[in-house]
């Protein structure tokens, strides 16, 4: 039987991070996959829960979490109800969050305990996962899906001058219609920590087995990002799924009971890679 257990641990600045662990009760000590969601995402977005179930069915524990400043709350985990927190987010904050999640798994006890973890990240979460894998030997293998190759690829470069002048910018969430605020502290974080936040430089340092997966019809993060990551780390396994978009066919909400065909292909490739 597959079951889910929920957790809430402190992240950056003491803000809580909701997490859930999906696993098969008959193999409680299965290898642990930690999943990091993307920009304007959350742990229950789209088909993420179906992905968790699929991995559990194939012999893994699957731990996914909400970054502490992603804009969701404990009461509204699938809504951007706290745009103040979202505006205060930085990439260094998210790296601190990811470390806290790995610490929780590798330093604790109980059903989520693990000596090492497999790390999987989507889009911006992919960039976070690359940096963390390069930094943390507790990461046994790395999988990135539609990952960015640089954080400044998340917005048009021409907005930065005005962003610095006003101290804030807004990014439209096309799904919800919300104007998502981002303070200039996000840019300042990049300026103050250029080495720590250089995704391609960290990609070159990744020593673990790494699977890079991208869709050739990704218009949000073009496949050129994956090509740059592969060039930075030639030892990585590289896969382009034909016809796949940025979310591999998923939507929010996702009402189907089975995985979209491209996301299913991603899961199959990833599980084969992790089981090698």
Key structural traits:
276 residues, alpha/beta, two-stranded antiparallel ribbon
Question: What would a concise description of this structure say?
Answer:
Helices cover 32% and strands 22% of the residues. With 276 residues, it is an alpha/beta fold. The longest helix is centred in the middle third of the chain and has 17 residues.
Radius of gyration: 17 Å
* Average predicted confidence as pLDDT: 97
Strand order of the largest sheet: 1-2-4-3-5-6-9-10
The oligomeric status of these chains comes to: single chain
Uncertain stretches: none
Q: Determine the fraction of residues in helical runs and give it as a percent range.
A: 25-40%
What structural class results from the helix and strand content?
A: alpha/beta
Main pleated-sheet profile: 8 strands, mixed
Tally of extended strands?
A: 10
> What general form does the structure show?
globular
How widely separated are the two ends? 25 Å
Topology record:
Elements (H helix, E strand, L loop, with lengths): L1 E9 L5 E9 L7 E5 L11 H10 L3 E5 L17 H6 L2 H17 L9 E6 L1 H12 L3 E7 L14 H7 L1 E5 L6 E5 L1 H8 L6 H5 L6 E6 L8 H9 L4 E5 L19 H14 L2
Parallel strand pairs: 3-4, 3-5, 5-6, 6-9, 9-10
Antiparallel strand pairs: 1-2, 2-4, 7-8
Helix pairs in contact: 3-4
Walkthrough of the structure:
The protein has 276 residues and is of the alpha/beta class. The chain has nine helices and ten strands. The longest helix is centred in the middle third of the chain and has 17 residues, at 91-107. The model has no long low-confidence stretch (mean pLDDT 97).
């Amino acid at each position: 039987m597959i079951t889910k257990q929920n957790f809430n641990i402190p992240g950056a600045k003491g803000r809580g991070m909701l997490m859930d662990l999906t696993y098969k009760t008959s193999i409680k000590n299965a290898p642990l996959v930690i999943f990091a969601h993307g920009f304007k995402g959350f742990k229950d977005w789209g088909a993420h829960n179906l992905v968790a179930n699929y991995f559990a069915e194939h012999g893994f524990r699957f731990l996914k979490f909400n970054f502490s400043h992603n804009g969701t709350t404990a009461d509204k985990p699938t809504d951007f109800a706290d745009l103040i927190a979202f505006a205060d987010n930085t990439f260094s904050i998210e790296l601190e969050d990811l470390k806290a999640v790995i610490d929780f798994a590798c330093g604790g006890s109980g059903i989520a305990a693990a000596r090492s973890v497999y790390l999987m990240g989507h889009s911006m979460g992919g960039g976070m996962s690359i940096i963390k894998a390069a930094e943390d030997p507790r990461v046994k293998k790395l999988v990135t899906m539609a990952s960015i190759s640089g954080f400044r690829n998340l917005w048009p470069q021409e907005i930065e001058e005005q962003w610095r002048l006003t101290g804030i910018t807004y990014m439209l969430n096309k799904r919800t219609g919300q104007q998502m605020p981002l303070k200039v502290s996000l840019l300042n974080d990049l300026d103050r920590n250029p080495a720590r936040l250089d995704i391609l430089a960290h990609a070159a340092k990744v020593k673990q087995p790494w699977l890079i997966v991208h869709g050739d019809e990704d218009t949000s993060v073009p496949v050129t990002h994956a090509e740059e990551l592969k060039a930075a780390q030639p030892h990585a396994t590289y896969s382009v799924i034909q016809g796949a978009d940025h979310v591999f066919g998923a939507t929010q909400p996702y009402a189907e009971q089975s995985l979209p065909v491209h996301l299913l292909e991603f899961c199959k490739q990833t599980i084969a890679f992790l089981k090698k």
